[in-house]
Amino acid sequence: MRDAAWDEAANIRVEIVCNRNLAESLLAHLREHYYANYAMIAFLHEVEVLRPEKF
Fold first, then answer.
1. Quick one: which of 5, 11, 7 has its CA closest to 40?
2. Is the pLDDT of residue 49 over 80?
3. How far apart are the first and last CA of the chain?
4. Half-sphere exposure of 1 (CA within 13 A, CB side)
5. Which whole number is the average pLDDT over 4-10?
6. How far is CA 51 from the centre of its chain?
7. What is the mean pLDDT of residues 3-19?
8. Which of 4, 25, 27, 37 is the most interior residue, by most CB within 10 Å?
9. What's the rounded Cα separation, in Å, for the pair 32 and 26?
């Protein structure tokens, strides 16, 4: 059950599966616009999509 009621101090986790160029672009945007004011952790990791027909 999800209520989508995020408190101001709640943690949010976002996972994105995309190609490396897009991932680097997204991370650069986050770094430039959000790192200074939010406690963020970002990382790149190589993955293999097992059901590509779902994307």
1. 11
2. yes
3. 25
4. 1
5. 70
6. 20
7. 79
8. 27
9. 10
| 34 CB-near residues (< 8 Å, 6+ apart) | 40
Indicate the length of the chain as a whole number.
55
User: What are 51's two structure tokens?
Assistant: 């059901």
Question: Look-up: residue for tokens 């989508």?
Answer: 4
Task: Measure the CA–CA gap between 27 and 5, rounded to whole angstroms.
Answer: 26
Tens of pLDDT, residues 14-34: 899 999 999 999 999 999 999
Alpha carbons 43 and 24: distance in angstroms, whole number: 10
Q: pTM for this structure? A: 0.69
Domain residue spans of the chain? 1-37
